[in-house]
Amino acid sequence: MMNLNKSKTFTVDIDWPVHGGQALPPLPDPNSIQFLEIYLSENVNFNSYGIKDWINWLKPFSNKDGICIQLHHCPSTVVYLINIMIDFLPKNGELISFYVPYYSQETDETQNILFKKGHQFLEDKLIEPEVKDSAGNLMEMDIVPSTFFKFLNR
Fold first, then answer.
1. What does the pLDDT look like over 59-69, one tens digit per residue?
2. Long-range contact list for 126-130, CB < 8 A, 24+ apart?
């Protein structure tokens, strides 16, 4: 789905694996927008060809004054890419929301919890929610926080 509204915001939904050779949605002229909002589904993942396609797809908007690229609902695999690939999220980009995997050793349950900017994280601070499994046990993040949240310090 794509949409350009009156506030010069262009919205794109991506809900498929990006593995190269597949067309990413067409984008408008970079001079016609101020915000590029990209909503990702949990189905989104990238291989090396897809990463290259993604970076080239965003290139006309990357590091361009007056444009903000916003990523919403990023799966954990995308957060890892943001942390290790310099151009995956350009300097004029921001992570608005992303999923953090949680695990319960007691029940072997997993949950993906949506962290939103201004609620569970700020520019340089994490506000971890209390997550419980179906038996009421506290769940733990199923990631290495110092690696996963590296983007908070960029």
1. 999 988 899 99
2. 126/152
Residue 124 has pLDDT above 80, yes or no: no
Give alpha helix (H) positions in the chain: 48-58, 76-84, 145-148
Longest alpha-carbon distance in the chain: 53
- Cβ-contact 14, 38 below 8 angstroms: yes
Read off the tokens for 11.
């919205």
Q: Which residue has the tokens 């001079």?
A: 31
State how far the Cα of 76 lies from the Cα of 84, in Å rounded to an integer.
13
Long-range contacts, 119-123 (Cβ 8 Å, 24+): 121/149, 121/152, 123/152
How far, in Å, CA of 25 to CA of 57, rounded?
9
3-state helix, strand, coil in the chain (%, to 5): 20, 30, 50
Nearest to 24 by CA among 50, 63, 42: 50
Tokens of 88: 């995956």
| pTM recorded for the entire structure | 0.90
Indicate the pLDDT class of residue 4, thresholds 50, 70 and 90.
low
Distance CA 66, CA 146 (A): 31
